[in-house]
């Protein structure tokens, strides 16, 4: 660097310029990572007055014939709606189930007539309560991937959502990212 350049711009001007560029690039990269992480961890879908938050499933061990499905449904409308059916290419059929305890025994049974989503309310499909069962798996869901399923509601109609596949032992911690 020549003596006249230093005299004109000061000896630290190149360092500051370089530092500012590095800082700008670092902030940009961190912003991209944040946006990408939000897209992975908290995905939501809308149909009519309904918001479907973070649909997820667990990876299954080899040979498993069923997988569970979980999500939240928030109804921002002034009238109730009802989840009527579920379909997915990952399984021969999909059913809505409810788990509960009766006389100290855990029970699981299909829900008939659909699941009501009250006006202005929220319903969680989560382990230990209401949930989906993907029955007759055509392939094993693997951690880190996603698979589509179509949810059909009485008033809002059909919406295709992507179920993020989490680890085999997950208990729904990712659901909190959507809320």
From TrEMBL:
Pfam annotation, one family: PCuAC
Coiled-coil residues: none
Superkingdom of the organism of origin: Bacteria
Matching SUPFAM superfamilies: DR1885-like metal-binding protein
Name of the protein: Copper chaperone PCu(A)C
């Amino acid at each position: 660097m020549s003596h006249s350049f230093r005299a004109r711009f000061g000896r630290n001007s190149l360092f500051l310029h370089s530092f500012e560029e590095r800082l700008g690039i670092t902030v940009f990269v961190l912003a991209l990572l944040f946006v990408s992480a939000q897209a992975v961890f908290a995905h939501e879908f809308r149909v009519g007055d309904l918001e479907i938050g973070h649909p997820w499933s667990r990876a299954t061990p080899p040979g498993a014939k069923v997988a569970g499905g979980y999500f939240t449904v928030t109804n921002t409308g002034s009238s109730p709606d009802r989840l009527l059916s579920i379909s997915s290419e990952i399984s021969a059929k999909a059913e809505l189930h409810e788990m509960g305890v009766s006389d100290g025994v855990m029970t699981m049974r299909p829900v008939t007539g659909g699941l009501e989503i009250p006006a202005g309310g929220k319903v969680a499909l989560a382990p230990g309560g209401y949930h989906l069962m993907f029955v007759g798996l055509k392939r094993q869901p693997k951690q880190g991937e996603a698979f589509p399923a179509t949810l059909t509601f009485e008033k809002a109609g059909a919406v295709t959502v992507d179920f993020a596949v989490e680890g085999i032992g997950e208990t729904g911690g990712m659901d909190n990212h959507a809320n």
